[in-house]
Amino acid sequence: MTRFDAETPEERQKLFAEGISAHRERASAFVTFEADADASALDTDSSEGDEDDPDEAPPWVQFGDGTLNLDCTDAELDELKSVLGEFPAFKIDDIIRPDEAEGINVRVSALADANRVSQCIERVFREVYDQPDEYRVWVTAV
Asked: Helix or strand or coil: residue 9?
């Protein structure tokens, strides 16, 4: 990989596909994509109480061994299910609601080529995590 961030839909999908390919070539445990924390804050609704929490981690998605891994809220889980309805080869394998943490960890089987997985990841960031059109995403681990 030669670049580790992207800001437009086309660049982001290419970055996701390159990150997935690099993960597969290196046989690493996973690749992690994370939305830029500053960009995530730009598209918040001030009526939401904890959206401005500086300790809140930016949205992220991991891919490894044919599985997407992400954390979400109950509302985001509903949106994730809606997005996955348009990706028939993807299905939720596990939903974990840890007692010691807020939120939900979701594992989704994503047995598809890197381009199809990257399309799904883009939709997750845009529709599940409600990122703005020009959000920046980073590859934070490969």
From this structure: helix
- Tally of domains within the chain: 1
Tens digit of each residue's pLDDT (9 = 90 or more) over 12-24: 999 999 999 999 9
Residue 52: inside a domain: no
What is the Cα–Cα distance from 11 to 20, expressed in whole angstroms?
14
Give a yes or no: residue 54 inside a domain.
Answer: no
CA distances from 65 to 23, 24, 31, 54 (A): 9, 8, 10, 32
Measure the CA–CA gap between 104 and 26, rounded to whole angstroms: 29
124 domain residue, yes or no: yes
pTM of the predicted protein model: 0.87
Decide which of 134 and 40 is more confident. 134
